Amino acid sequence: MPEVRIDIGGRSYTVACQDGEEPYLRAAAKLLDTEATVILGQIGRMPSDRMLLMAGLMLADKTAALEDDVKDLRARVAAQEKALRSAEERLADRARRIAELQEAGPRTELPDRVTDGLAELAARAEALADDLDRGAGGGTP
Prior knowledge:
The chain is mainly α. It contains 3 helices and 2 strands. The chain has helices spanning 22-43, 48-104, 112-138, and strands at 3-8, 11-16. The N and C termini lie far apart (130 Å). The model has no long low-confidence stretch (mean pLDDT 90).
């Protein structure tokens, strides 16, 4: 089991770790050292156990905030995925409807409402034409 020498808050520690974990231990120690340096800069010299406790609590606070951010982002992603699924379903429905309309071919029948309206217009036009013919023909022998 390898031992790694790390520096935290101006103090050196020797820590054992599993083979291959040395880079992770050094990275974790660097994070802890950064927080310890901030604490020592604000408060000054303090016992190592208290310094390590405070630095650990600061890292825990940052970790908790990041976990909250991750939770919020996951919720936003889930909402966007739901909206995307809904849009995909609507798109698929419209594609099916388009395919049905293309398969049915062009519509040549007009709705009854339209044909009735056209028939009424034609009847009025004929009545007007008759009135005009009578008016023009009525004044001449």
